[in-house]
Amino acid sequence: MSNTLPPLPYAYDALVPYISEEIMTLHHTKHHQTYVNALNAAEASYAKASTPKERIALQAALKFNGGGHINHSLFGRSLAPSAAVNKGTGGVLKDGPLKSAIEKYFGTLENLQKQFNATTAAIQGSGWGWLGVNPSTKALEITTTANQDPLLSHAPVIGVDVWERAFYLQYKNVKADYLTAIWNVINFEEAEARYLEAVGGSKL
Ligand SMILES: [Fe+2]
């Protein structure tokens, strides 16, 4: 039952210049750790709760901190050091099933990025932008969730954190610049693995 902070598969400065070392360090060691700690506390309280009322009172904490843990675990693996600065493979969409699906549903990667960024920038308050697989149609679709709600309507392929803490230290209030920059560090290899699992129907 005890949840733990998963390590990032790269160093805190590995996403520079697109996401700063300070943001990555705080985001992982402080914010994500806090969700893990609070989720563990809520789960422990839930296990001890003896009445429906006590259990119901814990629902919000379980959802918020559980969602925060799920979303940030996914986000950490959604990113990779950028090929644009010769650090890794981030931002590179190779020929393959995911690229074919993106072209089928969005025409081009550039078009997907434009639609994703416009939809995600329009989130009021804090939330997440998602590229996901519709479990009924297997189509790739863009959607958003509020606060730390995890994506339940689709199987997540790419998730982008648009809470201000994800970008404010570097981009201040210019969310659009953050959203433009982040495509340079998207881990499309991870995204393709998730896409294939989703369309394979094995674990939606
Ligand atoms: Fe975050």
Automatic annotation (TrEMBL):
Check the record and name the Pfam families matching this protein. Sod_Fe_C (PF02777), Sod_Fe_N (PF00081)
Residue intervals of the Manganese/iron superoxide dismutase N-terminal domain: 4-79
The identity of this protein, by name, is: Superoxide dismutase
| Necessary cofactors | Mn(2+)
Q: Which GO terms describe its cellular component?
A: mitochondrion
As recorded in UniProt, coiled-coil segments are none
Function comment? Destroys radicals which are normally produced within the cells and which are toxic to biological systems.
Concerning SUPFAM superfamilies, the annotation shows: Fe,Mn superoxide dismutase (SOD), C-terminal domain (SSF54719), Fe,Mn superoxide dismutase (SOD), N-terminal domain (SSF46609)
Q: Known catalysed reaction(s)?
A: 2 superoxide + 2 H(+) = H2O2 + O2
Which family does the entry's similarity section mention? Belongs to the iron/manganese superoxide dismutase family.
EC id: 1.15.1.1
The enzyme's first-digit EC class, named in words, is: oxidoreductase
Query: Signal peptide: which range, if any?
Result: none
Which Gene Ontology molecular-function terms are recorded?
A: manganese ion binding; superoxide dismutase activity
Q: Which UniProt keywords apply?
A: Antioxidant, Manganese, Metal-binding, Oxidoreductase
The entry's Mn(2+)-binding residues are 27, 72, 161
Q: Which residues form the Manganese/iron superoxide dismutase C-terminal domain?
A: 95-194
